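Structure ticket #2291
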Amino acid sequence: MNKALHRGEDTPVAVAPPSATVNPIADRAAFDAARAACQADPGAFHGEIARRNLHWFVPELGARGAWIRFDPDARRWTGWDAVTAEPVAPDLPADFAPWTRAFVDDDAPIFRWFDGGLTNAGFNEVDRHVLAGRGDEPAFIFEGDRWDQSLHGGRGGPVVEITVSRKRLLLEVARAGIVLQSLGLKRGDRIALNMPNIPEQLYYTEAAKRLGILYTPVFGGFSDKTLSDRIHDSGARVVITADGGFRNAQIIPFKKVYTDAALDNYVPVADALMVLEAELGRLMAPDAAAVVLRHAREALAGEITVERSDVMRGVGAALAELVDRAALDSEAASGVRTAVARALVAAPPRVEAVVVVRHTGQADVQWRADRDRWSHELMAAATARLLDAARAQGHSATDEAALLALPDQDFVRAVWAAAPAAPLDAEFPCFIIYTSGSTGKPKGVVHVHGGWLSGVIETLRVAFDASPGDVLYVVADPGWITGQSYMIAGALGAGVTSILAEGAPLFPNAGRFAATIARYGVDIFKAGVTFLKAVMQDSQNAEDVRAHDLSSLRVATFCAEPTSPSVQQFGMDLVTPWYINSYWATEHGGIVWTHFFGNADFPLRADAHAWPLPWIAGEVWVAADEAAEGPAEPR
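Resolution: structure written out below.
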């Protein structure tokens, strides 16, 4: 480790930044100007960003509306007709805004952004890139967990490696949307996803966005109890899962271990109390029933869903108390206990359907015919509906291949015949994601279609200089906010290619993630501190990494968690010199403290520091012992 990193020694030497190409925060003057503009008029400042980062639906344009975006270079609005998919360049003034008020603070601190504006995160992440003629470009690359060391000249490679074009992505997302509609889901309904990192998770996620269906992604490593709680708390009507996933070449039976256990072994507290009250009202006098209900409520306090045995413990304690007080005889207590247990088993179904993606191909998948549906069967029916609608519109679409062979705009028009993206209010909820609970009980955080996506796209530009054609590799799961914001939405929205990797980035050895970077020419890498700490544990790990060419990397960053100087220095030495610390949280939805790519006025050193984005007004509180020494940089 560089001795300058030790406390009390010289300040670590700053790393010269790479040159920026599109970063709007190119120097200190640009930073100060942006900060002043945001403080003076936050609506105008963020409105300008949202006008160029997103396409907005304007119903007054054309026969039935158009999706348009402001081109800051040409200083005009351009886009596509919402029905014909033909390019449009409406005669609108350069200062036109597709909303009534950009920032509404009438009910502070409850704020609204882009009031009256219509957009759709799914359209901005998928459709518009195909409309722009980039249909054959890779949207994402899927790399499976299983590894074959004989591939790539003995360097090894994934057994399964799939490149999904933006055109193919739109087709799959449209099919998944038709599946959701076939299950009776409509705008405002909720679903939960508990899946491994596989393409189908991305398809169903984007399908929900384009239809205005709220989704809750649940990390595949969480317990069945956590999944149960989040299914109920989010109000999910449908759960989407997989037969299993691969991790370290082992099969994890997702459906059985997580979804089935969550839905079958737990009941919502509200349902349990409702069942209990009904049975007690039928079997006991009101005074005795009140005692049992009080014990049950105390036993279940603070819980969202519980095992039936948790309910029965409360009931048992209450019945024992009543028997001891001679308020109830033992035989009657036994009858109550049996009746309540039977009623809990017969509690109402938790969800309407479980959609199962066949991924690992297990032969012994537990199945409930009244609830479970195979995704591939539903997708096949959706394909038939999609092709029928395309043919009815006059397109040559005998099968999927013929549909994909259509020119990009014809292809989009054909897809829209059965599965258009719904214009939604900018503040319409997009998804619910739960905090980790590290600072207390997990909280459900809602992010929306407009401001969240526009902000995430902007942070990619400011922190990483991201632009179309770049390749982004985020080591994350869609169940965490960094997976949602950067692996999926930010990457797709900004038009960069994302790496979707199943399993662990260090299997079968620590060089796995480096092999991925080298094979796909990754420009931007994002991984957690824990990941690098694992690499640091053994010197052989570093050698495994050095066996691969990482020269394509422009920048790397930690994922939404604090780091230490030693870990940052290790990343700068081993992975890329421009290994920054970007800090944020689930509640933010995107980076808030970071470095600005290519900006020499904000030097990068391995001291774990970061600067607030120009639009972040943050305070830093320095502990007394640190304040006495005096910070090296103004906080």
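Closing remark: The chain has 21 helices and 30 strands.
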